[in-house]
């Protein structure tokens, strides 16, 4: 327990200094930041952000589906999130007769709202530090295997007790700081969530993959849902007798707008960050893994793009696949560039040298950095083999489709174009053959290559009139089996040791920081749990002689508008509204604000998160980050790291003027 007490002590150090805007903080401990937040303009209290006794802002925030955030914006359970978060639902209700992706969808009455089987939203009831219970019975002499077994057992007991026999509660214990701290999270899960509205993709996805991860941005990335409950307001399975959920709290909307320098806060569920990586891992990401994965995806994208440009039907088939391949592809490039530009690897090495010097005579920390080097170098080649398994061998559509038991066959064939897949097979398998050492290739792969003489000839056998499903399944089965049996166990056990080292390293860094009176602040890496980030509206300079101002407008949409280019072809009605300056009450300085950037620290999963002003009112919906700042998952640079949000006034304008769905505006509480 002594180690743990030290850990908490180290955490509390340096709380009252004014900080850079880096950090994703625990809501229940936000009182530690509240002075800093207030100094930066926040007008509310820690209790307003998170309270277990009274309703607080947290009660209006939900985990939306698996990986997004959403927020409640009316007393009748109306919810807003991103268009790209509701994309799957919007698509699933679409058909040739009702193409909601293309034309948008607006429920004009409650009974037109569309149910979405499988979609849930989760409200956090409370979170609680359960470190002591999780580590009960732990002795420092235990091996990592023994510790894992003990921790698992304790966690199961804690979860069981918290859940009781309430079917709609979701409980989870999550590790923070690599298992130095554990938190219990208890959610109420609502499963009747109906689609209320979505703009056409030409607004909700405006700029497509060309503008993705970029500023200036003009995407109206929002969609609306409504949470329904049983008559008792508790979660209930879908039924037409369910009623709109009455929330404990909903966000009021600030339609007065924001400007440069204004305080902003993002409240949501960031997925994954790695801010405390050792230099080896940062180097591997920036110099090895990202470049290889980018190159492999470039091969696929070039093939897809060429075919998509030839034929509209193919473009539609591959639109969504192309978007998802390109999303990470583009992010990895920004991330690798950012890590290199910030000299993150060199800075980490310098820190590690000082840390090692300081740790002499402290047995717990003394050989840490050296051990990290050993472990990382032991798995570096295998990590690349793993990257190629997923990004090359398994990335051929027919191979993973056949290998995983032909799941979703109808949709698969509807969106499949064999020439793209065949060309991808040739490109990806050649890249694998060239870049992975022979000793790591499966005997199966080598035999097949020898049998056919070349990847091209092998492709001719795999893709005849129709793809050979049996052969595709065999490729998947054999190559994955080889990986699973020979490399996965090594990777798995070394990665466990690495986690153990990070757990110690975390404590060491905090002690070091305290001993040297350093100013570093610590926050737990994102792990899909609820967090608060705060900062302010701010432009940035992406490169020499260029400065980006922080707010974009409808005029910018009109400048980009181009009927010839799919991603920039806006609805005629939007052109007409602009030409007539028919902006209603939403006009600001002769235009409509569309999006803005700010210094909040966010990551994937923060999509759809509420962006709040100093009074806790909604000013925007988070949907992206700027390209030059995507390394913030590994290292945060206050100069260029910016989150991108939809300005809520653009959503209001679209709902009101474009969709004529004024009844939705009327149920919101708008502060003017
Ligand atoms: N980059 C954003 C995110 O990571 C938006 C992705 C969806 N949009 C797209 N054009 N692919 O999720
Ligand atoms: N678009 C991302 C998401 O879907 C958010 C952007 C980011 O990574 O910050 O969560």
What topology does this entry show?
Layout: H1 2-12, H2 34-39, H3 46-49, E1 61-64, E2 68-72, E3 78-81, H4 83-92, H5 100-103, E4 105-106, E5 114-115, E6 121-129, H6 131-134, H7 144-163, E7 169-176, E8 181-190, E9 192-198, H8 201-204, H9 208-211, E10 223-229, E11 243-244, E12 253-254, E13 263-268, H10 279-310, H11 312-341, H12 344-358, H13 368-391, H14 397-403, H15 409-414, H16 418-435, H17 443-452, H18 455-462, H19 469-486, H20 488-515, E14 531-536, E15 540-543, E16 546-548, E17 551-553, H21 554-560, H22 572-579, E18 593-598, E19 610-612, E20 618-625, E21 643-647, H23 648-658, H24 662-667, E22 670-671
Parallel strand pairs: 12-22
Antiparallel strand pairs: 1-2, 1-6, 2-3, 3-10, 4-9, 5-9, 6-8, 7-8, 9-10, 10-11, 13-14, 13-19, 15-16, 17-18, 18-21, 19-20, 20-21
Helix pairs in contact: 1-20, 10-11, 10-12, 10-13, 10-16, 13-20, 14-19, 16-18, 17-18
Task: Give a quick precis of the structure.
With 672 residues, the protein is an alpha+beta fold.
Notes on the structure:
Helix content is 44%, strand content 16%. The chain is of the alpha+beta class and 672 residues long. The protein has a domain at 279-493. The strands form four sheets. Strands 1, 2, 3, 4, 5, 6, 7, 8, 9, 10 and 11 form an eleven-stranded antiparallel β-sheet that branches. Strands 14-13-19-20-21-18-17 form a seven-stranded antiparallel β-sheet. Helix 16 (418-435) runs antiparallel to helix 18 and helix 17 crosses helix 18 (455-462). The chain is globular and about 65 Å long. 45% of the residues are buried. The structure holds arginine (ARG) and glutamic acid.
